[in-house]
Amino acid sequence: MKDAFTADMTTTPKTLSVSQAAAVCNVGRTTVGYWVRSRKLFARRAGRSFAIPVEDLLHFLASTGQPIPPALGNGNAKGPLFKSFRSCWTYWQAEGKKHRCDSCITFRRQVQDCFCVRHNGSCGCPESCRQCRYFQEMFAARFQFVYQIDFPAAVFKGLNLWGGNAAWAELCGLPEDGLIGLGVETFIDPSSLAAVISVFKKAALGENTGLIPAPVVITTPRQKKRSVSAWVFRLRDPEGANLMLAGDIGHEQDGESQTS
Q1: β-strand pairing of 15-16 with 224-234
Q2: Which residue in 28, 136, 147, 203 is deepest, having the highest Cβ count within 10 Å?
Q3: Residue 236, SS3?
Q4: How far apart are CA 15 and CA 13, in angstroms?
Q5: Where are the domains of the chain?
Q6: What pairs with residue 247 in β-bridges?
Q7: What is the topology classification, in CATH, of domain 2-72?
Q8: Contact by Cβ (8 Å): 195, 143
Q9: How open is the CA angle 177-229-191, to the nearest 5 degrees?
Q10: Long-range residue pairs from 28-36, CB within 8 A, at least 24 positions apart, any chain
């Protein structure tokens, strides 16, 4: 059965049926069914059957110490393996948890990056993002690498901040928890906002980015301003996200002395 499966696959599919997953993993259908029913392995309902995202199967096998079959394509990949992305309301429904999704603006507006609406008061999530298992699995896992960078580093998608390391939090005068979901306009000074947005637009179009031509001015909640050199680089995963690095931090000035 395994040979029949691999013979038909010229490229790795995005999802597998229970039978296909069992064949490629060389286990029985009942074993895969148990993984799904016990919520150890995520699967989407497809009529009366299940569709198992390959990303989730790879993550499950790796996290449980099982060998990754070569037929899954990137079994030899050196990078980390992540669960497939799904919305917060889909995640909690699959987990059997009851959140106030029906009354949450994230669900009503179908916002995929739920943490970006936490600050408007209409979010139904009972936990902070740092304590939220969904945020940790779907988002934070994808930017853990920034904590290995010694200088200020942060991950953005669109015009919102996903998170940053301690050095970036210090630069912005905020706790690390306070970075999550912020719009760039809350900490990029108006004098630098157009240049930053322009580079983000280039990244969204697939153009090469790098050093932002002019120094970027960061404004802290206490209205202190810091001028930095900043670089923007496109990330492969998460798709559509950018990494911003800061260096050569200038002297801190208050708002009045900066503009006088």
Answers
A1: unpaired
A2: 203
A3: coil
A4: 6
A5: 2-72, 88-138, 144-259
A6: 229
A7: Multidrug-efflux Transporter Regulator; Chain: A; Domain 2 (1.10.1660)
A8: no
A9: 80
A10: 35/60
Q: Which residues pair with 199 in a beta bridge?
A: none
CATH no. of 144-259: 3.30.450.20
Residue type, 7: A
Long-range pairs for 177-185: beta carbons < 8 A, 24 or more residues apart: 177/128, 177/129, 177/130, 179/154, 180/115, 180/118, 180/129, 180/130, 180/135, 181/113, 181/115, 181/116, 181/117, 181/118, 181/119, 181/129, 182/119, 183/116, 183/159, 184/156, 184/159, 184/160, 185/159
Using the structure block, give the residue that is written with the tokens 């499950």.
60
Could you tell me the two tokens for 43? 């699967």
Separation of alpha carbons 193 and 246, rounded Å: 15
pTM score: 0.81
Distances (CA, A) of 129 to 37, 44, 107, 119: 27, 25, 16, 12
Residue 217 and residue 196: Cα distance in Å, rounded?
10
143 DSSP β-pair partners: none
Full pLDDT tens readout for the chain, 260 residues: 444 444 344 456 789 999 999 999 999 999 999 999 999 999 998 888 899 999 999 999 999 999 989 888 654 455 788 999 999 988 888 776 667 787 788 888 898 888 888 766 667 677 888 889 999 999 999 999 999 999 999 999 989 999 999 999 999 999 998 999 999 999 999 999 999 999 999 999 999 999 999 999 999 998 899 999 999 999 987 888 999 999 977 666 775 544 44
Give me the phi and psi of 83, to 5 degrees please. -70, 155
